[in-house]
Each structure stands twice: as structure tokens, then as C-alpha cells.
Amino acid sequence: MVRNLYLLLFFLAGLSTSSPAQLGPTHPTQTIRGHVLDADTEKPLAGAGLQLEDATQVYNLTSEADGSFRMSKLPVGRYQLTCHFVGYETQIVQEILLESGKEQIIEVRLTPGNETLAETVVKGNRPDNTVSSIQSISTEQILRFAATYFDPARLATSFPGVVNTNDQANNLSVRGNSPAGTIWRLEGVDIVNPNHLSNAGTIGDRPTSSGGGVNILSAQLLGATRFLSGAFSPEYGNTIGGILDMRFRTGNNEKHEFTAQAGLIGLDLAAEGPLSKTKGSSYLVNYRYSFTGLLGLMGVSFGGENIKFQDLSFNLTQPLKKGGKLTFFGMAGNSSNDFKAPEDPAVRLEDKDRYNIYFSSRMLATGLTYSRALTDRYSLKVSAVASANTNNRFQSPVETMPANIPAYVRDRSTNGRATVHAALTRRITDLRRLQTGLYVTRWYGSAGLWQSQTPFTPPPRQGRVQEGVLQAWLIQPYVNYQWTPNEAVMLNAGFHGNVFTLNSKSLSLEPRLSARYAVNAMNTLTFAYGLHSQTQQPMTYIAAKGLPLDAVNGISNTGLGFTKAHHAVAGYTRALTETSSLKAEVYYQYLFKVPVSVHAGSVTSALNLIDINEFAARPEQLANTGKGRNMGLELTYQRFLTKSYYLLLTGSVYDSKYQANDGVWRDTRFNGRHTLALTGGKEFTRLKYGSTRTWGVNAKITQLGGYLDRTIDELASKNAGQTVYKGNDFDVRLPDYFRADVRVYWRKSKPKYSRTLSLDLLNATGTKNAAYNYFDALQGKVVQQYQLGLVPVLNYRWEF
């Protein structure tokens, strides 16, 4: 392992050498265009200065009266856009890839401030109240970085303190928190789990609340996407972990463009273009069908498993009079994972081979947004978003099972959210800004688990273990006041409210405070504090051990209140160059009112949950008396892709503890203690025979401290015929995790189209990383389950 690490470090070190392009006869060209807007009021900014720069030349232009800008017949390649306007902070948009098959449309939003100091430069195009613990994610990065599966959540594992709990899925533990603490947002509103195959990589093959095999929203439709890891500003609520905040990009409103992509992930077909050129309206749509599903239709199986998924996403944009804008968007997907036991008993090698298992899931999210500037000082944005998902699993044996084992198992879960969000922003002066908003959500959750020795019959359902339905309102008002007293200081102060009508204990008023201080042109200090709260998962409310089930819905733990957390972050950023920086952050998170078991001797805590049925497997009465604490130091060096190479080096040391009802501090399941991720790549470009040809080599090295597992009572497991733990204490540390990923691509741009052929080698060194231990009843012993080995992912992309 150490030898492999040194070899890959040496390889990445060689990326720092540049290779000039070889000039050819004809260079394909394309257009970069867009608008410059006031970030608060969306008022067009006329006369903004823009500099567009590639490796050899700088292009200067000025925005028009409607804020628009355009530069045509630009050579395809990599660009950086700098935008400045008197009285506003300068903004730099990095890593723009211009290809012959697709125009680049960029919306630049500027915030008031001093336009000359380097510390005020914002990298990205969505400035807001957040000053720390935030990373931007672009579609171009998702398509370039190694081992992303074209999924923003997997790219986020390159950031400090962000760990994937299993290679088969994108369940993220952020700063030692459970993946259940991470939420997804779409167009500024919380949604249910937007992932296919939400049971991927879990111990019990049950769905999770926030992850899955791959994101339903294709990366081809993603606009400005951000990942936040703590001490959130007031507009973010109902989470104690991390936030993946996704937005749709706007389709081309002048010309029709198409993308076809085929690979191991699936077959993608995307189209965009104008609905009305005179009105400036546009459409953007993508359909995807899994590659494994296509092979399944041809009779090909993967170890007895038939895995398939498909999804459809769209975004329609309609500009309105007086600067308003209306969007209608949606995403829908379904997936399934069917396992058929081998017919020959002689080839049944593990316990799973004795069962037929069928898992399916569906997810839908759709909504409308309306935004407009009311005056030069006021702007309004209103959103209505509904999302829902459902998961079903059925297990049946193919041989006679011992009497003490529940042979037939079925479970299902459903989550739904319907939210209206309104936000009003007032520019009091150029130095003072007030934002108020309100989320009103109809919250729905249901779950059930049934176990039986005989095949299931129609209702009444036999073998009920847990079953229940929850419905309530979730109401979240917020306010933020931003003040910039001078060119070096920015202050944010506000509140977020959280009211859950399920019970009287779910009420929280949460102060939020953040500040940025520019010491000089190169050095910046930041600080952020927030009190945060989060509802429990539906099964956590429902599950209870030893209590009679309610005659109507089987609910016993509905009296649980929010899990809460104080989170403080202090940071230091040094701008090394215009395209590179060094950042350090130290954080402390104190969690309280955590649901823990009330039973003597039990150390069950909600902070150790991954899949949503873990409490159902060992249901217990819970109370909000637990605690937790996460603390750590994170370091980040980032160099954006300029002069043909990029580098992102992140690392963290942290400690994650929890306290059950016995008052003893223990390691949480996710206390890996350290993370290290090195991501980099280099491009080699040549102009030849009327085309531009680019080779790209990318790699990622990940080294993590091992997670914790529970001790298995082997004798009790043999008697029970299934895994029996000695307790719920996570006291067994798994070995450290190491993985190296490589991505090589070849891109060719012709005058009318571009195409890209890529190959990813996931876990290129074939390292065996432990996932968890379990007792295998067929083998009669404790078995260690490993994560993914070497996986090649071939992909072909055509844009025209």
C-alpha cells in the first residue's frame, strides 16, 4: 500500500509541468455569453467590465444596457472570467471549458462592496450570507475529476472532513456526523433522498435517508451546486450535518443543442434550446437508462443480481416582464435491485444465497420558482417544491429455514415533503442588507417491517414488527442582517426558527452569526457560529421495544424532539495567487437532545445510524437525553485548472464522541480520526487537422482512518442463526482505508461538435478495504465484508 502511495504521489507531482499547445491550421471556435446582475435585486448591471483569459490571450468586453455580454468565435479551450463593477465586489469564474459542441452561458451575480481588494474576490456565481465551510461544485469538475460516477456527492469526498461510508453508495459522513444528518436541497428547498438504489452498501440491505448508488439528477443539468459542512447561515435549517445544495442550469435560449452519453453508468440523452426566441424562454431535458439495466434486458446478470434504474429531469425557464423570471422544473426516477438465489444448493456459498430478494424505489421532485426585483432596493423569490420517495423490499427463502429464523421479510418506507418558500431581500444601503424568509412544509413519513415463518397473505398482515404513519407541519422562518462597515469587514447576524407540529418538544429558535475580516490583500479571517436542529427519521419516531403497538398506527416515540447542535468554525485563508489558495478551519460541534435508549445497559444512540431501519431491527424506547461532540482541524490547498493542471489537497484530524444514557463518552461509529485526499490532473492539447485534441490525466488518492464496528457474539449468533452483537457499543476499529482512482480522457473538438472518450479506474490498486463484519449462518462463522475492488468505467460523450 505504501509503495502504491509513493508511486501515485510521484505521478501527481509530475502534473506541475506544463505543455504548450501545438498550433494547427484551423481552430474550432465557440461563443461565451451571459448576463451581469445585482445578486440581490437581479437588476442588470450595464457597463460592467469583463476580462476573459485563456493560456495565451486576454479578451476585454463590457456588459450592455440589459447586462448582457457576448464574445463569439473564441478558440475552444480553458478560460477564466473576471467581472468588476464600480461599488461591487470583483468576481472570478474559474475553470470554464469552452467546447465546439456547446455554447457557454454564464450568469454573473455581483454583491456591493469594495471592488479593488483581492480578499473580496468570490469564486463562483452564487454569493450569499455564507463565509466559511463551503465549497462550490461545477458540472465541468464532475465530468473531469476521477471516480465521481458523474455525481456531486462523490466529488464532495475530495473536500476536507467529508467521508463516504461505503464505496457502493454516496452516503456522506461530514465532520464525524451520521449520513442521516446530511440533507439535499433543490432550487433552495429541502427534498427527500434524490438517489437511485438507496440500499446500496448497507449492512441490512435497507434504504438510507440521504444516499444511494447514484444521484437521480444527471450532472448534465446541474448549475451552481454547493456543499456546506457546518455553522450554516440563517436560510439553512433542519440539519446538523452537511448540505448538498443543487440548482438547475438554464437551457440555451438561442440555439438547440444536444448531448449523448453512453457508459457503464448508463445511456444519457439531453436536449436544450429556445421555446421562444423572442421571449427568451428555454427548455432543458435529460433522460437516462442504466447500462446494467440494458444488459439485464439482454439476459446478462451480475452474480445473480439484476440492477437497473432510469430517470428523467427537466427545467423550463420563462423570462417575464419587468425583469421577472418563472421556472418549472422536475426530476423523477425509479430503480430496482433483484437478487435470485442459485438454483443449485452446492453453489450457495453465503447466507444471502438462500434467499430471493427484491428491492425497488421511486422518487419524484417537481416545483416552480418565481423571482423579480420589486424596486431598486427590494427583490422577491417564491418557490413551491414537492418531493416524495418510496422503498420496498421483499425477501423469501428458497430452502427450508430453521424455526428461529424469520424466513419471509418485507419492509417499506415512504417520505414526502411539500414546501412553499418565500424570501424577501431589502438593500437598505449599499453597506446594509436585510433578508427575511419563510419555509412552510407538509411533512409525511411512513415505515413498516414484517417478519414471518410462512409466506405472507393479504391483510391482516402477519408478523408485524413495526408499522406507522407520521404527518405534521414543519415551519421555518429566518432573518439575516448583513453589514459591511468598511472595506475589510463583513458581518452577518440572524435567526432561524424550527417548528415541528408532531409534538410540543419540537420547537427551536436558533441564533446565527458570522464575520469576515480582510487583514490585508492576501489574508482573510472568518468566524461562524450557529445553533442548529433536525427532525428524526420516521422509523426513529416509530420504533420502540417492549411497548404495546398503538392500535391505529403503531407509534411509540412520537414524543421525541429535535436533535440540536451548537457549531462554531474559525478559519484563515491565504490567497497565494489569483488561482490558488491555502485555507485552514478549526471547528467544534456540541450535540445535545440526541435520541438514546432509556433501557439500562443499552448504549444505542441516533448519532450512529446509517440505514433507516436500524432501530426497527432492534427497536427501543428513546428519549432526548444523549449528547455528542465533534471537533477537528481541516487544511485545504486548492489550485484551479490553469496552465493545463490543477491540484486539490485536503486533510483533517478530528474526534467524534457520543454519550448514551449511562453518561460515558465513547467513539461514534464514524470516528475515523483523520482524512487525507489528494486530487489532481493535467491536460495536453494539440491543434491538428482542423480540430483541437486534448488528453487529460486525473488521479485521486484517499487515505482515511478506519470506522468502528460492533463486537459479534459468535456463539449467540450460531444459536440464533443470524448476527447477534454483544452490545451496541462500536468498540472494534476497522483497518485504515486506502484507495487510488485514475481517470484518463481524450476530447476532440471539431467545428460543429465535440466528443470525449474517458476511462475511470476506480480503486486502481485493487486495495481490499473493510466495510463491516457479520455472522454468516450458512458458513457458520463471522465474515468480513469488503468494499468495492477495481472497477473500470468506460464512457463516451458527444455534444453537438
From TrEMBL:
<protein>
    <submittedName>
        <fullName>Uncharacterized protein</fullName>
    </submittedName>
</protein>
<dbReference type="InterPro" id="IPR037066">
    <property type="entry name" value="Plug_dom_sf"/>
</dbReference>
<keyword id="KW-0732">Signal</keyword>
<dbReference type="InterPro" id="IPR008969">
    <property type="entry name" value="CarboxyPept-like_regulatory"/>
</dbReference>
<feature type="signal peptide">
    <location>
        <begin position="1"/>
        <end position="21"/>
    </location>
</feature>
<dbReference type="Pfam" id="PF13620">
    <property type="entry name" value="CarboxypepD_reg"/>
</dbReference>
